[in-house]
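Render this sequence as a predicted structure.
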Amino acid sequence: MHQKHSPAFRHRCEHQAAKRAARNINTINKSGDAYGRISQHPILNIPKRREVVFTWNGKKLRGYHGEMLAAALFANGIRVFGHHHKDRSPQGIFCANGQCSQCLVIVDNLPVKACVTPLKQGMIVKSVDGLPQLPEDDKERRTRKIPTLSVDVLIIGGGPAGLSAAIELGKLGIETLVIDDKQLLGGKLVLQTHKFFGTVEDSYAGTRGFEIAKILEKELSRFDSVDTWVNATAVGVFSDRIVGVVRGKKYIKIKPHKLLIATGAREKMLSFPGNTLPGVYGAGAFQTLVNRDLVKCFRKILIVGGGNVGLIAGYHAIQAGMIVVAVVEAMPYVSGYRVHADKLKRLGVPIYTGHTVGYAEGKDNVESVTIAALDKKCRIIAGTYKTFSVDTVLIAVGLAEVNEFYLKAKQWGMDVFCAGDAQEIAEASSAMFTGKIEAFKIARSLGVRAGKMPGDWRKKAMVLKSKPGPVMKRKHPVLEHGVFPVFHCHQMVPCNPCASVCPAGAIKLQPDDITGLPYLVDPNACTGCGSCVAVCPGLSMTLVDYREDPDHPLITLPYEILRERVEIGSKVPVTDTDGAILGYFPVQKVITRKKYPGTLLVQVLADRSVASAAMGIRVQDTFVEPRELYEKAPQPDEAIVCRCERVPAGEIRKVIRSGVRDMNQIKAITRAGMGACGSKTCRPLIWQIFKEEGVDLRTVTDRVDRPLFVEVPAGVLAGNHQRKQK
């Protein structure tokens, strides 16, 4: 059994941890420069790319051909792309997804979004200070007739839901077109380096997100009836039941018989002073820059939101060599999977539950962020302010459905379906099943004989989107002989890889479904192969082997950070589930499994007394200490609600208190929602202000949507093309 160590022993361990702090930082930072490229990663391969030269405000810089311009600027240490015309506030990346215009720059005399503009040799790039000046009309351009393409099924969105639906339609030979606005299919799967939960059999549990994207794309390529367009943006759904699409620089009208919306979700934002400083991002923007673009654009990060998105982003940050100073969660408990939180705690990241962000400060970028504790009514408790020195604040406080196309298509009477996060926010594994289900409905509506839908599809979709169960206490095994796995998962979530891969059939789930907790059927059946440790998505399994030395058992720990930290012969700080250091033990062996690349099995010789409690290896010590701040509550009215037009919360509150109950009137008075993003960020924040002011939301008139959901150059809509030079 695990025995408690004396205070003196724990003090020695913490003292040793402090001494190692500086060395640990250096080890972590080997993955790249302070700001620059990620040169090595424990999961991702670093591709070879063609280098090009471009200029930024007259200065020559280097980047890679085809990467997004924003990534190239960040890799060169440039995080401010311009200044707002209203108040000179610094502007930079916000969504990294092409949905806002915070990253506007001038490229070859044209205003473009840096986050969706591929870099080319010789580009002349300038910052925007004030309003961009549009170029004069080119009289050498001519209009052309816009083609209309008819298709049986159009799927907008090539993520897990859209691809899964297309695969089912492809099996039935139904003519299908999938369009996606990114360079690669897969949606957010492309950004995920962690292993997924769910079932091995039909939702690829134990496989990393970017690998699942490749699997789905490969399967889809088998079907001749399905076509896919990347770099194709749906910009509007119109009353004549036409979907407008910009593919490259061409505008195409598509008339589908059936329309499936699988556009995913966008991140919600928080309103607090300093929330628009460069350095405040959504977790999706962060993962795009780090996991897709391989740019190390941050040093020290504080994460707001203890759901799965925030916890996973923190893990990705450490994998890429960054320092996560803390995770802040307003609820009194972590709302994401407990195993995701445990991974961070074992690595050395503190989690502050019952706290919120107060405000961020800095000149041209975030330099510090202040948090505070909350009471039971979610009010800030006086005297609890703490400030961290950071350069990045990641906001991960939930997602909202991207369903504008679905609602507009319904308004025009189109036969439209919805799947994935656009239907309901859930895990990617659930999105795959909702895609399959909607594909079956589409096939049936087309009169195609699709047979009977598998009866367990709906059930599995519901299970996979279910909330995590309560955290339960589990006793460590009393066994001190032989070899056996130790289960450190304490929460019922949909996950069965360990039971699926055990060659001896020694692991079962209780209760007997995919949300059950694993247990060992027969201790004598375990062969010590370690497959369960390698496949576990939560890295919540270890293997204890007493066969060689009963007093110093060999413990196999899962590890996915840089290998330099666990060289053979080195002593590593081994922690329990909560991140407490149990001691420093020598590494005996580091195993890599071809079937489970990226997850190292680190074997250490440990004391018998800590064998069952040992869970992970700390790589980041708590060396970033918050300092107490003067007792002054932030002024929430200063917080910017409309980023595009720089409208603060106080201005909107004033209008609401005057009796205005129409979002369109608020827009006319304050300009909130009039910016380039089309109120994608400020709209939900304004609804929240109505709620905070005690207004019955049923009395509020929602704003009228624009015909186009994405900005499009007028010339593209007109079918302009440039006359060839003689």
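Summary. The chain is about 25% helix and 25% strand. The longest strand covers residues 250-261.
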